[in-house]
Amino acid sequence: MKKNISFQMLWLSQSLSNLGDSLYILSIVTVIYKITGSAFISGLFPLLRVIAQAISTILVPLVMDRMKLLHLIWISQVGQTLLFAVMALLDLDGHSTWLTMTLLFLVFWISVIHGCALPARNALTPRLVSADYLMKANSLLTTSDQFVLLVGWSLGGVLVYYLGTTSVMLITTGLMVLSTLCLLFVTDSSNEESLSTKNSGKWKQIIDGWQYIWKDLDLRIISFMELVSNFGGAIWTGSILLVFVKEALNKGEIWWGFINSGYFVGTILGGLIVWSLSRIIEERVKQSILWGCAILSAATFCFAINSNPWLALFLSFAMGLPNQLRSIAQRTFIQAQTREDMLPKVFAAVTTIMFVTFGFSVLIMGAIADFLGVRTVYMITALLFTLTTVLSLFIKTRRLNATKEEHVQSKIMTK
Predict the structure, then answer these.
(1) Is the separation of the CB atoms in 299 and 263 below 8 Å?
(2) How many CA atoms within 13 Å lie on the side-chain side of 129?
(3) Fewer CB within 10 Å of terminal CB in the chain, N or C?
(4) Which residues form a coiled coil (predicted)?
């Protein structure tokens, strides 16, 4: 993989793009809150992003049949860069309702375009690296995503304070330009055409990935596990975690930042561990998913019943490690389990599940926190991760039984 220039440039491109994206999010939330003074309207920003990205991933299979994945990613980057440039040219220090509506309109379309890139990137990765390095490549991409988010959120506030939102948007646009240029050095050597006919109905093209998942029991279970895991991901949204820190730990915003950062550090370290042990983990993908889910469930339960802030900080770090192991192992399993021509559409379906369930979970978990208490949210999440542990055990057991049957059949054939 060290000699794989195409993968390295894809990785660099996505890292620059994610850094720009984190700076842009912080800038726009700051601007909208400054204009409206409303936390509710500012909260529409992430909700609008999730809705737009979900729409994008539902409809992107229509495009995947008509262009190469690399071209799709390139167009996505160019489109986002142009819209970021338009944002940078606006008077972001203004206070008009027109500015708010314009920003939300641009946010929607940036999110639609951005939603196309994630499933395309995950489907392109196996084409750029050999099967032996797939786990290592996934861990590098995932760890970089988490590290860039940590840096972006930490650095973004400082930049907005000292330079202003317009300057930060110009920096974002520059990062996106560099990200787009990196893609010029990526070469997809795969010449396989999609087996799905381009003349088939649009509805058929949209549901191809969903049908493929439904026909494969392992993919069906993994997709359901993604749904359950992302539903539990609401515990790391800023609002719910802040309530937990204040009500369960009796601490303020400083500890909120500590615990949030502890989780990110855990995910980064988890990604590095997966990267360094990729050969071992790749040979035990199903076991890795099982142990990742089991440890995450136990750590979340301990976090839910704990009242000590220092222990909560350690547990937030401890939750990041298995969550990263589970996430990377599941992505690698999907890539290995799916036919290459169907992989983009399968990832589009899985990504849709991620966006939709996360969006609903923020609303539902927020309501549960208000009516039943914030500890209940974390207890429910621990139960959800326990469910994923049971499902991963089923996959492991089923695969083991299938291997034994194949071994018996081969012995019979030999005799």
Answers:
(1) no
(2) 27
(3) C
(4) none
- Tokens 């058929």 belong to 204
Pick the range with the lowest mean pLDDT from 6-10, 89-93, 260-264. 89-93
- How far is it, in rounded angstroms, from Cα 49 to Cα 146? 19
Residue 404: is its pLDDT beyond 70? Answer: no
Tell me, yes or no, whether 93 and 42 share the same domain. yes
- Evaluate whether residue 189 is within a structural domain: no
Smallest CA-to-CA distance from 202 within 74, 64, 71, 51 is with 64
DSSP string of 185-202, one letter each residue? G------PPPSS-TTS-H
Give a yes or no: residue 199 inside a domain.
Answer: no
d(C-alpha 321, C-alpha 325), whole Å? 6
Asked whether the beta carbons of 207 and 89 are under 8 A apart, the reply is no
Model pTM score: 0.82
Enter the tokens of residue 41: 């309207």
Question: Is residue 376 a contact partner of residue 235, using CB atoms and an 8 Å limit?
Answer: no
pLDDT digits (tens, 9 = 90+) for 205-254: 888 889 999 999 989 999 999 899 888 877 777 668 878 888 889 988 78
Q: Give the pair of three-digit tokens for residue 279.
A: 């050969």
pLDDT at 267 over 50: yes
393 and 301 belong to one structural domain: yes
Residues 240 and 99 in one domain: no
307-331: per-residue pLDDT in tens?
A: 999 999 999 999 988 998 999 999 9
> What's the half-sphere exposure (Cβ side, CA atoms, 13 Å) at 246?
10
Q: Which of 72, 50, 75, 46 is nearest to 61 (CA)?
A: 72
| Selection from 361, 267, 395 nearest residue 319 by Cα | 267
Same domain for 118 and 56?
A: yes
| 39 plus 147 within the same structural domain | yes
